[in-house]
Structure formats: C-alpha cells, structure tokens
Amino acid sequence: MAKVIKVDIGSQMDSIIEEFKKALTTSKLANGKFTFTHDFGTVEKKATLIYSTKAWLKTKVLVDHFSSEVAWHGFAHRVEGEENTYKIEDLEVYPQEVTGATVTTDQEEYTKWLYAHTDEEFNSIRAQCHSHVNMGVSPSGTDETLYRHILGQLPQDDFYIFTIHNKKGDMTRIIYDLRDNLSFDNKDIDVVVEGLEGFVAEADSQVKKHVYTNTGSTGSGYPYGGYRDGYGYYDYGGTSGYTGYQGGYSGGNQQRGGAPANTSKVTTTPAVVTTSGNGGKPAPGSVTPAGKGDQGQRFGYKKK
C-alpha cells in the first residue's frame, strides 16, 4: 500500500502531541536520548510502472553487460488518464567512472551531457537507475540518504522513479509522486513491459506443469518408489535399491534460496544544480560535487 509524503497534521495535532507526551513521560533513557515515531498509516493504492520494450531491453543488456556497477537515467512521464501510472520510454547512460560498488560522475562531462538534450528530453529525465551487479537490490543507507535528498529538491508537482537491479533479475523500485502526495515501493508497484503482455499470456496458456503422484511402495525399504526433481531420479526402495544420482545440476555458481545477504554496497549522492540564467539549464561550473561517488543527479530544476 502507498504512503503519504506530505502530512496534513491539522486534525491530528492534538492526538499526536498527547501521544508524544505519553511516550516522553514513560520512557527511560538508556543513553540520554529520546526518539519518538508516529505511524501515519498507509493508503489503499498501487502504482503501475510501464517499460517500453526498448527501455526494458536496454536495462537487461546494461545489467548483463557490465561486471561493475553502472548507472543510467530514464526518460519517463505520467500516463494520462491512468491513475498512478508511469512509463519509462527510453534510457541513457551518462558519463561516469565505476568500480565494483561505486559510481562517480565526472561533473564537467555530465553537464555537457545534459546540455546535449532537447528541452523535451531534458524535462523527461525522471528516473535514476543502477545495477548492484551480483549483490542484493535492497537500498543501502547511502541510497536512502540519496532518496531523501532528492525528495527534498523535487518540485511540488513532480515525480521521480528509482530502480536497482542485479544479474539475477531482482529489482527494487520506488516512486515518489509529490503531485498526488504518495510514495510507492516494490509490492505497491506492478511492472509491465509494453508489447509483451500478450506474448506472456499466450505462453502461459501453452505451458502446463506436470503433477507427480505417489506411485506407492515398490518393495521392501522405503514405502515409496522415489521422486524426481531438478537433480534427477532417486529410487529409495523396491528390489532395485538406491539407484544413485542420475540427473545434473546446471546452476553453475548460482546459490539456491535467493540473493546473497550482502547489501553493503556504496551508492552515491547527487549533484546540487543552480539554474540562474541559461534558460533554466545549469550554468557552466554550477554543478558541484556533493561528495565522493556523486552520480551527478539533475534534480529540482527544469529547462524553460
């Protein structure tokens, strides 16, 4: 379910103050600090993130191609007439220097990259995406700091999309929409690849899973004949005894049970851009690094 971004606490002010007073007066401070949290609840809404076939293919190619981190921007817009629906039409990789776990932007080259786009392209840069290579796709603490920074710079009628991918096909997605005052993440967001819906539905109609049934005892020993899975056929009983391993596991170095628990990757913080003059574009030299690993984000301004 979605969550609110901006809170209208007018009608809730008294109850929140009372809740705070109660928590403060009943707390025992182990370290001299007091922390208060209030849950503003959720909203019964979901979002849809549509990828054009081209944008989805490019995403998969980038993640598969690079053995290091790589980051890119997506050109996105709202889908008019559809509630909480957003579409990434295309994407581009911007100038960057990468390691296995970081992306650093060359500020001068990034500014030139921004200048090279038309007004329409420039104003549709509404997605920041990157790969975690073989690591899990949960946002790190640095990622979350980046999200808060960007959210603080977004205009009141704007939205922004974040995605994280890895080579196993895992994907984290987050959408902030200030116009509708809602944020969505993962289970709140259905991902649709344009043009493939019919193909997948047709494939589902043609593929049926075989259901294995217990064949009963085949003799002495275990009370069942065996089972068959991805590793081959195992015969536990009967006159034949244990037939051994007959299958083959083709998973290579894959680990069963999901992605590794290591989510300690280092992400980056955005550039802060000023737009005095230059028709709304950042003035030369005005894009300044916000720290090591800066991904050169373009937030909080539009070309006029």
Task: Describe this protein's structure.
This protein is of the alpha+beta class and 304 residues long. Among the domains are: 1-41, no CATH class; 47-200 and 265-280, Cytidine Deaminase, domain 2, CATH 3.40.140.10. Helices cover 21% and strands 21% of the residues. The chain contains 6 helices and 13 strands. The strands form 3 sheets. Strands 1-10-9-8-7-3-4-2-11 form a 9-stranded mixed sheet. A two-stranded antiparallel sheet has the order 5-6. Strand 9 (171-177) and strand 10 (182-185) form a beta hairpin. The chain is globular and about 60 Å long. Mean pLDDT is 78; it is low at 219-278 and 283-302.
The proportion of residues forming helix, as a percent range, comes to 10-25%
CATH fold category name of the domain at 47-200 and 265-280: Cytidine Deaminase, domain 2
CATH architecture of the domain at 47-200 and 265-280: 3-Layer(aba) Sandwich
Report the order of strands and helices.
Answer: EHEHEEEEHHEHEEEEHEE
Beta-strand fraction estimate: 15-25%
Largest sheet: 9 strands, mixed
Arithmetic mean of pLDDT: 78
The poorly predicted ranges are: 219-278, 283-302
CATH superfamily of the domain at 47-200 and 265-280: Cytidine Deaminase, domain 2
Could you say which structural class the secondary elements and strand pairing correspond to? alpha+beta
**How many beta-strand elements?**
13
Terminal CA distance reads 35 Å
Shape: globular
> What's the arrangement of strands in the largest beta sheet?
1-10-9-8-7-3-4-2-11
CATH class of the domain at 47-200 and 265-280: Alpha Beta
| Count of alpha/pi helices | 6
**What Rg is obtained from the alpha carbons, in whole angstroms?**
26 Å
